[in-house]
């Protein structure tokens, strides 16, 4: 199926790397809004017949969907969202576009569709407090798709066939209570399901839709066996698996013999990220993986040739094929780098026609952006931590104010590329340190598992050790180090200020967890099947109560010495508002007045442009006051 477009290898520098920069003069102070306003155009997609382009562009300060015939000069706006950006969209067929939208950040996404002439716009799933997931867009069926909804039970997703013109629904699979995901074959038949008992996952399979599901194998959640897709004859499965190995590899699984038949590709250093395939040629074409930067291993000479052609046309940039028509001769190409949000291009493989469609943020000059450098350092127990260091352009790498920026997740990772927050901070004069602390994904099973029950412990030590490394290198001014992060990064900010209060001059917590007990009691209902897994990964509220108490910043606010700024979305379903409320209340009881920004029309992060402006301006002023960086007027 096509995934929704939703608006999250070079040598690693060692501890002894030289970060000195030649001083060529400081760059201009770029307006804050230039970093955080909506793109000029983005999320391009090509119609199955290759005749039209769809893309997202601001209208009334919100990202809406437009469609344009290839070669034409005018585009037609299809949607009129004014409350919130369209969250994602895709071509349902040659004449109709489908999209999803939630309300105020509650993540209860509804499915909509509209014709490319603007007619028959319809809310296909008009149900309150119900979330839609797309299972299969049924490329060969122009009138239907397969979706999952938790309409009957907030914790469980049943499967439906839906008419994209009328919204007519037919339930085709009922969730018995333990299925967490469903997989179709290339004919759109529902033939694989994955179940969980909280800590063990089972892969279920059936030969056809009239059969009962049968278990193929059961593994602990610590091991991964994830279906990537059926083989093109629909007889076996391509899997992403780390069974019997540390790193995720692409494998072929024999359904008849119930065993892994062969490893198609593995990398000794990192997990694979993604699988590339051609429906037209009915074959796998490659895999991608990320060390310091993204790389590809090709399984098809023709695909490799196309990437080489594109690399010659776009030297100096990472490239990705972000879309293609059904005939696979017309491509959409996206460029990436650390200094630009990139551009979209159209490429005709047959005629070699190559057209630039749009720069995502043309107002940002690459010449004024800072370089993001891959780095490594050792944690106190010897574990190697990979990360990125961005130094303010035109300043000597010595005694700089620093913003430490741990990523969210925490089971995610930072990657090389353009990050508007990082570039904004660098433009204000800060060195920015991002690190893939233990538990970050992509580095194998052992590295991920080493984070279990380590919130605020060794996971936080990895962040602290990165700060100490910066100080040892002479890059950081030890009196001007701040910490900022969102979600788990917000938790890490609170943990940094409470457990290492002498290290930071200030902190900014953005939708962060403060209390591990209340956090796990308030997760979305559809996360409930994973609650036992969370207990093993984070800690059990009763069996590990002492651990969770010791790792919850809200119980240790008396240790906080540095100023703290907190921002929160009122409708956040993942880290609910009470996580921030109780932190603010505890600080106020200690006589500390903490700036607190709450947006009533936001969820887990601020999606609306005006709210981003308000937040980043407040953060800019806050960091400028306590770390001494530059402050703009906007």
| CATH architectural category of the domain at 373-514 and 542-627 | 3-Layer(aba) Sandwich
Into which percentage range does the β-strand content fall?
Answer: 25-35%
Any idea what the radius of gyration is? 24 Å
Low-confidence stretches: 1-24
Q: Structural class, judged by helices and strands?
A: alpha+beta
- How many helices? The count is 11
What is the CATH H-level superfamily of the domain at 373-514 and 542-627?
A: Alpha/Beta hydrolase fold, catalytic domain
Q: Mind summarizing the main beta sheet?
A: 8 strands, mixed
What characteristic shape results from the CA principal axes?
globular
Termini gap: 43 Å
Count of beta strands: 36
Side-by-side strand order of the widest sheet:
29-30-32-31-33-34-35-36
Q: What's the overall average pLDDT, rounded?
A: 94
Commentary on this structure:
The chain has 634 residues and is of the alpha+beta class. It has a domain at 373-514 and 542-627: Rossmann fold (3-Layer(aba) Sandwich), CATH 3.40.50. It is 17% helix and 35% strand. It has eleven helices and 36 strands. An eight-stranded mixed sheet has the order 29-30-32-31-33-34-35-36, sandwiched between helices. A hairpin with a 5-residue loop joins strand 2 and strand 3 (52-59). The chain is globular, with a radius of gyration of 24 Å. The two termini are 43 Å apart. Residues 1-24 have low confidence and may be disordered.
Please give a handful of descriptors for the protein shown:
single chain; 634 residues; alpha+beta; Rossmann fold; five-stranded antiparallel sheet; 11 helices; 36 strands; 17% helix
């Amino acid at each position: 199926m096509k995934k929704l477009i939703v608006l999250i290898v070079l040598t690693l520098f060692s501890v002894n790397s030289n970060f000195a920069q030649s001083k060529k003069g400081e760059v201009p102070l770029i307006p804050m809004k230039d970093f955080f306003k909506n793109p000029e155009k983005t999320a391009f997609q090509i119609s199955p017949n290759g005749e039209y382009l769809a893309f997202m562009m601001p209208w009334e300060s919100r990202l809406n969907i437009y469609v344009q015939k290839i070669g034409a000069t005018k585009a037609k706006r299809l949607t009129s969202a004014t409350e919130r950006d369209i969250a994602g969209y895709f071509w349902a067929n040659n004449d109709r576009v489908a999209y999803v939208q939630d309300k105020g950040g509650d993540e209860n996404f509804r499915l909509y569709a509209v014709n490319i002439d603007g007619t028959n716009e319809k809310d296909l799933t008009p149900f309150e407090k119900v979330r839609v997931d797309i299972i299969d867009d049924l490329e060969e069926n122009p009138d239907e798709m397969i979706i999952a909804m938790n309409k009957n039970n907030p914790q469980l997703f049943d499967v439906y066939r839906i008419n994209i013109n009328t919204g007519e629904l037919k339930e085709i699979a009922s969730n018995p209570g333990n299925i967490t995901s469903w997989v179709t074959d290339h004919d759109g038949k529902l033939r694989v399901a994955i179940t969980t008992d909280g800590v063990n996952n089972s892969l279920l399979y059936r030969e056809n839709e009239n059969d009962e599901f049968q278990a193929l194998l059961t593994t602990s959640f610590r091991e991964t066996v994830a279906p990537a897709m059926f083989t093109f004859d629909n007889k076996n499965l391509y899997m992403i698996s780390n069974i019997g190995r540390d790193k995720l590899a692409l494998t072929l699984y024999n359904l008849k013999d119930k065993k892994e038949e062969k490893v198609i590709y593995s990398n000794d250093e990192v997990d694979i990220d993604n699988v590339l395939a051609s429906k037209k040629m009915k074959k796998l074409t490659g895999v991608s993986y990320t060390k310091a930067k993204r790389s590809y291993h090709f399984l098809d000479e023709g695909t490799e040739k196309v990437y080489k052609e594109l690399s010659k046309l776009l030297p100096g940039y990472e490239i990705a094929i972000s879309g293609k028509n059904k005939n696979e001769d017309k491509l959409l190409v996206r460029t990436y780098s650390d200094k630009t949000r990139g551009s979209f291009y159209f490429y005709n493989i047959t005629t070699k026609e190559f057209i630039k469609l749009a720069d995502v943020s043309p107002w940002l000059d690459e010449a004024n952006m800072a370089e993001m450098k891959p780095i490594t350092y050792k944690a106190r127990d010897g574990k190697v931590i990979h990360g990125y260091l961005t130094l303010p352009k035109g300043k000597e790498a010595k005694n700089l104010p620093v913003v430490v920026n741990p990523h969210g997740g925490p089971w995610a990772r930072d990657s090389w590329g353009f990050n508007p927050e990082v570039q904004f901070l660098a433009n204000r004069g800060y060195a920015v340190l991002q690190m893939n602390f233990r538990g970050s994904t992509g580095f194998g099973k052992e590295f991920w598992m080493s984070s279990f029950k380590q919130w605020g412990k060794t996971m936080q030590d990895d962040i602290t050790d990165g700060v100490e490394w910066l100080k040892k290198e002479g890059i950081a001014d030890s009196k001007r180090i701040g910490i900022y992060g969102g979600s788990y990064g917000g938790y890490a900010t609170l943990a940094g200020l409470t457990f290492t209060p002498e290290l930071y001059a200030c902190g900014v917590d953005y939708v962060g967890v403060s209390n591990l007990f209340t956090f796990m009691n308030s997760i979305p209902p559809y996360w409930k099947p994973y609650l036992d897994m969370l207990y093993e990964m984070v800690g059990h509220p009763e069996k590990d109560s002492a651990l969770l108490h010791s790792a919850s910043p809200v119980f240790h606010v008396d240790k906080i010495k540095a100023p703290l700024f907190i921002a929160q979305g009122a409708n956040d379903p993942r880290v609910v508002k009470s996580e921030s409320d109780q932190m603010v209340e505890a600080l106020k009881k200690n006589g500390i007045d903490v700036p607190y920004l709450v947006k009533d029309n936001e969820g887990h992060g601020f999606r609306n442009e005006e709210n981003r402006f308000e937040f980043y301006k407040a953060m800019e002023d806050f960091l400028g006051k306590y770390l001494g960086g530059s402050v703009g007027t906007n």
